[in-house]
Specification:
- β1, α1 and β2 form a beta-alpha-beta unit.
- The strands form two sheets. This protein has a seven-stranded mixed sheet with strand order 3-2-1-4-5-7-8, sandwiched between helices. It has a two-stranded parallel ribbon with strand order 6-9.
- The chain has one domain: Formyl transferase, N-terminal domain (Rossmann fold, 3-Layer(aba) Sandwich), CATH 3.40.50.170.
- α1 runs parallel beside α6.
- By secondary structure, it is α/β, with parallel strands linked by helices.
């Protein structure tokens, strides 16, 4: 099966793809990456530091410790990822039009799988693969639509957090039919990055199982979410300060 994998050029996205692609060895895969998750514009410094730390982890994993400018580093990273994955890895600014759309159409995927992709998919990309588009969302749907669901669950001191695999059928954000949903205890003694990594580790076999079921039967059983839920955007400075005042950490202590 031809599978187009959509993700983001960051450490969590890399880790997930690094574990996912060996399990898809029998498929013909192509990877397309965005440069960021969330809308363009300034972000709080805490998120800038988190992104820089993620980039350092990613470069180290790829053997690319460098202080070069952004574009040469991006090119080197995608080349190293392509060699590691054994498939094409392409950075895209817009998958819905222009060269990104044309590249996807040339590949002509039978299935699109999205994990941490940084932009909203629109027609006709959604209608391109005959088996549709599935998304791994690192939050419980429909309650936690949007960005950084783990962060918002920590802020709210939820007893549980989790992930959802759902279908993308329109331009709504995290609103498509649910294929699988898993909930786990939220250990607030752990840092944000560790909690997120644990969630993706637990989600991997569920997503692979969904892909295998599509390969066997063509389509998945779905259940419509009758509740729209709440949308959470990128944390602002006030939310960041609350997070840190509550004693939460962004990454493991050295």
């Amino acid at each position: 099966m031809k599978i187009l994998l959509l993700s983001n050029l960051d450490w969590p996205g890399f880790q997930f793809l690094d574990n996912l692609l060996p399990k898809l060895a029998e498929h013909d895969c192509q990877v397309m990456l965005t440069r960021r998750v969330g809308p363009p514009g300034p972000v709080p410094q805490a998120l800038v530091r988190l992104a820089l730390r993620d980039q350092l982890n990613l470069r180290a994993a790829l053997g690319l410790i460098s202080d070069e400018a952004t574009n040469p580093v991006e090119s080197a990273m995608t080349e190293a990822m392509a060699e590691r994955y054994g498939c094409s890895v392409i950075l895209v600014d817009n998958l819905n039009q222009g060269s990104g759309k044309k590249t996807a159409e040339i590949f002509n995927p039978e299935l699109i799988v999205s994990v941490r992709f940084g932009s909203i998919l629109r027609p006709p990309i959604i209608g391109l693969p005959r088996f549709g588009v599935i998304n791994l969302h690192s939050g419980l749907l429909p309650e936690y639509r949007g960005i950084m669901a783990t962060f918002w669950a920590m802020i709210r001191k939820e007893a549980n957090y989790g992930f959802t695999v759902h279908q993308i059928i329109d331009q709504g954000i995290d609103t498509g039919p649910i294929l699988a949903r898993r909930s786990y205890p939220l250990d607030l003694r752990l840092d944000y990055s560790t909690l997120l990594a644990n969630l993706y580790r637990l989600a991997l076999p569920v997503l692979v199982g969904a892909i295998e079921q599509i390969q066997r039967g063509g389509f998945l059983e779905m259940r419509e979410s009758k509740v729209l839920g709440e949308y959470f955007g990128l944390p602002n400075q006030a939310a960041i300060e609350r997070f840190e005042t509550m004693g939460y950490r962004w990454w493991p202590e050295a």
